[in-house]
Amino acid sequence: MSSKRILLVEDEALIAMMVEDMLQELGLELAAHVTRVDHALVLVNAQTVEDPGYEGAILDVNLDGEKVWPVAERLRAIGVPFFLSSGASETEVPAAFADVPSVLKPYTFETVKTALEQMLDNRPKPGA
After folding, report:
1. Which of 10, 17, 81, 123 has the greatest number of CB atoms lying within 10 Å of its CB?
2. What CATH number is associated with residue 26?
């Protein structure tokens, strides 16, 4: 994978450190790491289609009890691909995001690599 910047929205510090290591091993850069939906929204709302600031994002579905869907909606609107991560297999994903790659925690290097490749190869059009 070529050097691309990835936004990580994850509230568990150990998982975030593990993902950052995985990104580095894959030749990717951690653009930013945020732990809360409101902080993630500040970041993604400051971005535009012309300059999103990152080429992809990893979104933990549940951030300390709050769902990440507003962040996913904004990323989709500006054309930034993302994949979802969750610690629960029964996580209900809204129909609007049924096509988004998803990875169950705890994940491995291979599952993250595969999801990143899928995500970056299927970059959505802004507003799609």
Report:
1. 10
2. 3.40.50.2300
